[in-house]
Amino acid sequence: MKKKLFGNVSITFLLILAALLLYYQFLTQPEINEDVPLPQDLHPVVQENKDMLVQKAAERGIKVLVTDGFRSFEEQNQLYEKGRSREGQIVTHAKGGESYHNFGLAIDFALVNKSGKAYGTLTMTEMAMGNQIGWK
């Protein structure tokens, strides 16, 4: 009986803790320090990695097309409005200030087939996740 009661209390505690963490993660907005200027381009390390990705892919006969990089808050908000208040399909769930693109920390790219058609848009985050699970 004691083990069952302890187990139920533990599960309840973990559920409450998870709910609080989710509340903090998804419902609070990060603070933006207005005194620090926002980037206007890709971060130099991201730029270097982008160039390396394109070069290494080319060495293997794979053509990579970078479809997007740095985006201003205004550009991000325009993309966010697609499929909502503007025509088109939803292409992002991030508003201005919520995307790594807004801080120069993300690129999107597609692979180009032999006939020159781009297919399969990927983000750097998706590539990193693929590398973690063994994609080469």
Automatic annotation (TrEMBL):
Any Gene Ontology biological process: proteolysis
D-alanyl-D-alanine carboxypeptidase-like core domain location: 41-115
Record's protein name: Phage endolysin
Molecular functions (GO terms): peptidase activity
Organism of origin: Mesobacillus boroniphilus JCM 21738
SUPFAM superfamilies in the cross-refs: Hedgehog/DD-peptidase (SSF55166)
Species classification: Bacteria, Bacillati, Bacillota, Bacilli, Bacillales
PANTHER family referenced in this protein's UniProt entry, alphabetically: D-ALANYL-D-ALANINE CARBOXYPEPTIDASE, PEPTIDOGLYCAN L-ALANYL-D-GLUTAMATE ENDOPEPTIDASE CWLK
InterPro entries: DD-CPase-like, VanY-like_core_dom, Zn_M74/Hedgehog-like
